[in-house]
Specification:
Elements: E1 24-25, H1 28-38, H2 41-60, H3 66-73, H4 77-105, H5 107-125, H6 130-158, H7 163-192, H8 195-201, H9 203-221, E2 229-230, H10 246-275, H11 280-305, H12 312-331, H13 337-362, H14 366-384, H15 386-398, H16 402-422
Antiparallel strand pairs: 1-2
Helix pairs in contact: 2-6, 2-7, 2-9, 3-4, 4-5, 4-6, 4-10, 4-14, 4-15, 5-6, 5-9, 7-8, 7-11, 10-11, 10-13, 10-14, 10-15, 10-16, 11-13, 12-13, 12-16, 13-14, 15-16
Length: about 425
């Protein structure tokens, strides 16, 4: 994400990319490596697309199989929810170390290592051990966190004049990966004849192919980051402490709460449908449709947000759509499944796009945007990890999805409140 100030009526920001390394300067060796990398743009583009395909596939492929995985190990609903909660928790933990790793070893090398780690984590989850299942989830979450944090900065660094187009490629591939993984989970289970383990392990191949595509970039860059020299701020330009800013906390809480309601769906949407009589294969397809439709909200809402001084109408819109979709899942989950998936998809995509855009619009400069992005991702994902776990525990305690959905509706109301505060025309 980039941070920039705008006057009323000026064009919207062309990108919502925050460079995690915004506070460090390039070196001569790093500049030479950048030129060598950009001499092979096709290799870089293929690497970005393949890496982006992996950024949600390993999470989305689990949801249609949660009931099968829980049954195989005799897990309760609460313990089963950890299959999806653990990776989300480590999305937040991994976000803490990703910028340092990128500066220390270079974005290309860390992205390559993250893809290898992702493949190992996916394979670990299918080993015949519940400890490996959760341990693999830790590796998967950490790997995706590294991709989440470093990929936007790499795109901003290497494609500064085409950031908007590359953002579309990056987000489109990410959503496509999630959509295909969700839709293919049950068919793969049947086609491979190995039960849920074969379906889940299949996606390690995608990670391996992406890592292979990144290998030439690693060899060309030779580990040089291009950011070896830390920028020294001017005497009168003290860094903004985002952790002490009420506005920064409002932005962060909106990021976390919208992530929470999304990860509850990632964990439990197919199970909600199957518990009400829908077949597992149909539930997987409806879940995939929900992932696909998110691209509409994720594309349109940030464009609208960038043209508005206050984003309050958009806060109301996205939270209302999500609340309406959840209410529909409670009242008529199977009869209105496609409608609720579409409503939720537009709301989910719009909410995440709006949350990321608020980081840009509320920050006064690029360095503040980078710090605010790190705070929002770390706290936001740690908060979101509680969602699937709490929903599973409440479902186990009550034997129904009514109370878990009511709690998420309360989350929507809270997100509306903090979102309205975060959407004011202010700067951190």
């Amino acid at each position: 994400m980039t941070a920039e100030t705008r006057t009323p009526g000026s064009p919207a920001p062309t990108s919502v990319l925050v460079d995690a390394e915004a506070e460090v300067l390039g070196s001569a060796a790093g500049a030479a490596a950048r030129r060598a990398l950009l001499a092979h743009p096709a290799l870089l583009l293929v690497g970005i697309v393949l890496a982006s395909l992996n950024m949600r596939a390993a999470l989305a492929s689990v949801a249609p199989l949660v009931s099968e995985i829980s049954g195989a190990y005799g897990l309760s609903a609460t313990a089963g929810s950890l299959v999806t909660s653990v990776p989300v928790l480590f999305l937040g933990v991994g976000a803490l170390v990703a910028p340092w790793l990128g500066r220390r070893f270079g974005a290309e090398r860390v992205l390559f290592a993250a893809l290898l780690l992702l493949g190992v984590g996916i394979l670990a989850r299918v080993l015949p051990s519940v400890y490996a299942l959760y341990g693999g989830g830790i590796l998967v979450g950490t790997a995706i966190a590294l991709l989440n944090v470093l990929m936007p900065g790499l795109i901003k660094r290497d494609f500064p004049d085409r950031a908007a187009a590359m953002t579309s490629v990056y987000t489109g591939a990410m959503i496509a990966g999630a959509t295909v993984a969700a839709a293919a989970a049950v068919p793969l289970e049947k086609a491979l004849g190995g039960g849920w383990a074969g379906s889940l392990g299949f996606w390690s191949l995608l990670a391996a192919v992406a890592a292979l595509a990144w290998l030439p970039q690693v060899l060309i860059a030779r580990g040089r980051t291009g950011h070896e020299v830390r920028a020294v701020p001017a005497a009168d330009a003290r860094p903004v402490s985002v952790w002490r800013s009420p506005l920064a906390w409002q932005v962060t809480l909106f990021m976390g709460l919208q992530s929470l309601w999304s990860y509850v769906l990632i964990a439990w949407m197919p199970t909600i449908f199957t518990d009400h009589g829908m077949s597992r294969s149909t539930a997987g397809v409806v879940f995939a449709f929900n992932n696909l439709i998110q691209v509409a909200g994720a594309f349109v809402v940030p464009l609208l947000a960038g043209r508005m001084r206050s984003q309050r109408p958009l806060i109301v819109l996205v939270t209302t759509l999500v609340a309406a979709g959840y209410a529909g899942l409670m009242v008529a989950p199977v009869e209105g499944a496609w409608l609720w998936s579409a409503v939720l998809g537009v709301g989910q995509g719009g909410a995440v796009g709006l949350a990321l855009t608020l980081i840009v619009l509320r920050a006064g400069d690029a360095a503040t945007a980078a710090r605010l992005s790190g705070m929002a991702q770390t706290v936001g994902y740690l908060l979101a990890a509680a969602g699937p776990l709490a929903a599973g525990a409440l479902h186990q305690a009550t034997g129904s999805w009514t109370l878990p959905i009511c709690v998420v509706l309360a989350v929507c109301a809270t997100a509306l409140g903090v979102g309205l505060l975060a959407a004011r025309d202010r700067k951190v």
